[in-house]
Each structure stands twice: as structure tokens, then as C-alpha cells.
């Protein structure tokens, strides 16, 4: 909570300082060019965040974005999680004035959706002042990458056994990456993976070349993961974050087939164990009969672990609503904001899995794998 309060205070200071530039939406427009499109479809422009701030844009403003013949309205924010899943955003990364402006869809592919590519012109115009400010402030999340700031290795590595619904005892784990040490957590996640006796890993994030870079990096210290990889017990899916895309679904099918072909305990991870792992975990939890509340609370453990979000707080509820609950509505084929009470999530998950190409027999095999206790599986 202390980290959140500090972030909100800083955000208010930023908003107050920026407000001195002006309060109207009159004639504030700036044009940039797409420099790169990353593998997730996010656009990086040749504009620095400070250029927008100097032009009178403030975090929490709504911005008109024009790309080719496409026009949309998106909030000016600092992080992907500042907007709902599937929503567009104009991002000044971390609020750093020297960082390049990005235009993206949270857990989606902006470039594919709007036909943008390197060299495309993007026109940003101020649409409404401060309309999104309250929402932005409540979503500010601050995370430390220092182990000493966390109560345990498990909290630091966002590592946990998922025990909801009919999930087997000790059969399924989720985590931050035990191999990508960008966040300084790989050694801890790897050690916990070993301690849990994990036999099979579904890596949602990395490609073959990325994994080889990690293995060759100076200071590499994930020996258990390396051993599993060399034994053929790690599948690399290199997924994007748009769980609505055909590419994501095809790779998810591949990953689940790998899971079914191997023995548990299983570990599913991406980089932070938050977005891609969050969606896949919610789906599999639904498949084994977990309730909406169980799925929501497991998902939100990540935000409590990383950011100190307080259980049941307004911030907690807002994040859950815009992320995991919207994901469940998608799986169930419901419109945004629909009531999930009374929805048979298990049947919805089954239908979703059939829709991405698994057979009915495979769905039942997957259920059986996930509902078998690890000890029983080991003794079989």
C-alpha cells in the first residue's frame, strides 16, 4: 500500500505541474512516424514523451489517434495495465520524458488491427483534458526488482501452486520466468521450480533464439531449467499477448498438447507470470471447475506479490474487473461487462478449447492430467 500511495502522490504532482501548461483541448496536435513495430504489434514512434508534455498533453487526457484512414480515441498513460484488456492506449513509458511514445492495445495487436507499419504517420491530437485522470491514478503500480523488498522467494518470483476447483494437489504451478533474468528473478524461480519437482514446462514467452541467449548470458544461473530443456521437457511458444488472435490460440493448442504428452507437475510461465500466464491459468482453472471468485483471487495474487495491491481494495477490484473478469467473459463468449453469475465456466472453457482445435477426447485428457494429484501421478 505504501508503494501505491507514493505512486499516487507522484502522479498528482505530475498532473498538477502539467496542468499549468493549459486546460483546454484547443488545437493541440502533433505528428509522429512509426519507427518500429514489436512482435506484439505495439508501435514505437519517433516522438519523445516530453514532446507531448511540452505540447500540453497530460497523463489522464484522452487523445485522438489517426493512423491512415483509421481514427480512435485513447488515454495518454504510462503503462499497458493503465487500460482494460483489449483497449487502446498512447503510452509514455514509465512517465520518462526521454522515452519514445508508444501506441498500443493492451493484450492486443495494434499494428494488425489498424494496418500500421514502420514508416506510417500517426497524428495525435488532444481530445479531452483529464477525463481519464481518476482512472489512471487508481491503476498506478510500482514494483521493486530487489529481493530484499519482498517477504519471501515465492512472493518475489511470483511463484505459486494453483490449488482451486478440482485442480490436483501439487500438479500445476505458475511463475515469473525461471530463465529470462531481465527482472532479476530467474534464479529464485528456477530454485522453486526444482523444489516443486516440476517435470514439464510450458514457456509462453520465448523463442528458441531468445532461450539460447539466456543460456549463454554471463551470470546464467538456472541449472534446473536448463536440464529440463535438454531433456526435451520445455516447449517454447513465443506467444504474443493478444489472446484473441489466431496465432495465440494455435500456440496455446500446441502448448496444451505438449502438457498432455508429458508428466506433471507442470509449470506455465511467461516473463512476469502475469498476462499470458494469467489468461492461460484462468482458462485451465475454469476447466477444472474453479469459481469466478477463486480464479479472480488467484489472478490477483500476482498484483499483490509485485505491487503490494491490497486484497479487496478499490484498486484490487478495478484491476480484476478490467483484466481477468474480461478474459473470462471472452472465454464464455459474453459481451464486455456482462454478469458472470450463473455462467458455467467449466463448459465455457471446454467450448473454448474445442474452438481452438482440441478434440473432445483431448479436453478430457487435459482435465484428467490437471485433476490428478502430483504424488499419485508420480507413483503411477
Topology:
Layout: H1 2-19, E1 29-37, E2 43-48, H2 49-54, E3 62-67, E4 70-77, E5 88-91, E6 100-105, H3 110-114, E7 121-128, H4 133-138, H5 153-157, E8 160-161, E9 172-175, H6 186-195, E10 200-203, H7 208-216, H8 223-230, E11 234-236, H9 246-261, E12 266-269, H10 276-287, H11 292-307, H12 314-322, H13 324-332, H14 345-355, H15 360-370, H16 374-379
Parallel strand pairs: 4-5, 9-12, 10-11, 10-12
Antiparallel strand pairs: 1-2, 1-7, 2-6, 3-4, 3-7, 5-6, 8-9
Explain how this protein is built:
By secondary structure, the chain is an alpha/beta fold. It has 2 domains: 137 residues, Elongation Factor Tu (Ef-tu), domain 3, CATH 2.40.30; 233 residues, Protein tyrosine phosphatase superfamily (Protein-Tyrosine Phosphatase, Chain A, Alpha-Beta Complex), CATH 3.90.190.10. It is built from 16 helices and 12 strands. Strand 3 and strand 4 form a beta hairpin. The longest helix is centred in the first third of the chain and has 18 residues.
Concise structural overview:
The chain is an alpha/beta fold and 380 residues long.
Ends: how far apart? 46 Å
> Numbering strands along the chain, what is their spatial order in the largest sheet?
1-2-6-5-4-3-7
Mind telling me the CATH class of the largest domain? Alpha Beta
How many E-type strands?
12
Oligomer: single chain
The number of helical segments is 16
CATH superfamily of the largest domain: Protein tyrosine phosphatase superfamily
Task: Write down the CATH topology of the largest domain.
Answer: Protein-Tyrosine Phosphatase, Chain A
String of helices and strands: HEEHEEEEHEHHEEHEHHEHEHHHHHHH
Number of domains: 2
> If you average the pLDDT, what whole number results?
91
Cα-atom radius of gyration: 21 Å
- Percent strand equals 15-25%
Structural class: alpha/beta
Query: What is the global morphology?
Result: globular
CATH architecture heading of the largest domain:
Alpha-Beta Complex
Main sheet record: 7 strands, mixed, barrel
Give the low-pLDDT segments: 1-26
Amino acid at each position: 500500500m505504501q508503494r501505491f500511495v507514493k505512486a499516487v502522490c507522484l502522479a498528482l504532482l505530475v498532473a498538477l505541474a502539467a496542468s499549468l501548461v493549459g486546460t483546454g483541448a484547443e488545437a493541440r496536435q502533433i505528428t509522429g512516424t512509426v519507427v518500429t513495430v514489436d512482435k506484439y504489434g505495439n508501435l514505437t514512434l519517433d516522438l519523445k514523451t516530453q514532446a507531448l508534455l511540452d505540447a500540453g498533453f497530460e497523463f489522464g487526457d484522452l487523445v485522438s489517434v489517426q493512423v491512415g484512414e483509421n481514427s480512435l480515441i485513447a488515454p495518454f498513460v504510462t503503462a499497458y495495465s493503465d487500460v482494460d484488456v483489449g483497449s487502446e492506449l498512447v503510452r509514455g513509458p514509465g512517465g520518462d520524458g526521454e522515452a519514445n511514445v508508444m501506441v498500443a492495445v493492451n493484450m492486443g495487436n495494434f499494428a494488425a488491427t489498424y494496418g500500421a507499419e514502420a514508416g506510417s504517420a500517426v497524428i495525435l491530437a488532444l481530445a479531452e483534458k483529464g477525463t481519464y485522470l481518476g482512472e489512471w491514478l487508481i491503476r498506478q503500480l510500482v514494483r521493486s526488482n530487489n529481493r530484499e523488498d519482498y517477504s519471501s522467494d515465492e512472493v518475489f518470483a511470483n511463484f505459486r501452486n494453483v490449488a482451486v476447483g478440482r485442480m490436483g494437489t501439487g500438479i500445476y504451478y505458475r511463475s515469473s520466468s525461471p530463465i529470462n533474468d531481465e527482472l532479476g528473478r530467474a534464479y529464485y524461480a528456477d530454485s522453486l521450480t526444482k523444489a516443486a519437482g516440476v517435470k514439464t514446462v510450458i514457456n509462453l514467452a520465448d523463442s528458441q533464439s531468445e532461450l539460447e541467449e539466456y543460456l549463454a548470458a554471463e551470470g546464467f544461473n538456472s541449472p534446473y531449467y536448463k536440464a529440463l530443456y535438454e531433456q526435451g521437457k520445455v516447449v517454447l511458444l513465443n506467444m504474443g499477448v493478444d489472446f484473441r488472435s489466431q496465432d495465440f490460440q494455435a500456440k496455446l493448442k500446441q502448448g496444451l498438447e505438449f502438457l498432455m504428452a508429458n508428466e506433471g507437475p507442470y509449470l506455465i510461465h511467461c516473463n512476469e507470470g502475469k498476462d499470458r500466464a494469467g489468461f492461460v491459468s484462468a482458462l485451465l482453472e475454469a476447466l477444472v471447475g474453479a469459481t469466478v471468485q477463486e480464479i479472480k483471487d488467484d489472478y490477483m495474487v500476482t498484483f499483490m506479490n509485485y505491487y503490494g495491491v491490497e486484497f479487496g481494495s478499490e484498486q484490487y477490484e478495478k484491476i480484476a474487473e478490467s483484466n481477468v473478469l474480461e478474459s473470462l467473459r471472452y472465454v464464455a463468449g459474453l459481451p464486455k461487462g456482462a454478469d458472470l453469475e450463473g455462467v458455467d465456466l467449466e463448459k465455457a472453457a471446454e467450448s473454448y478449447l474445442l474452438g481452438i482445435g482440441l478434440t473432445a477426447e483431448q479436453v478430457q485428457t487435459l482435465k484428467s492430467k490437471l485433476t490428478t494429484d502430483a504424488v499419485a501421478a508420480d507413483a503411477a
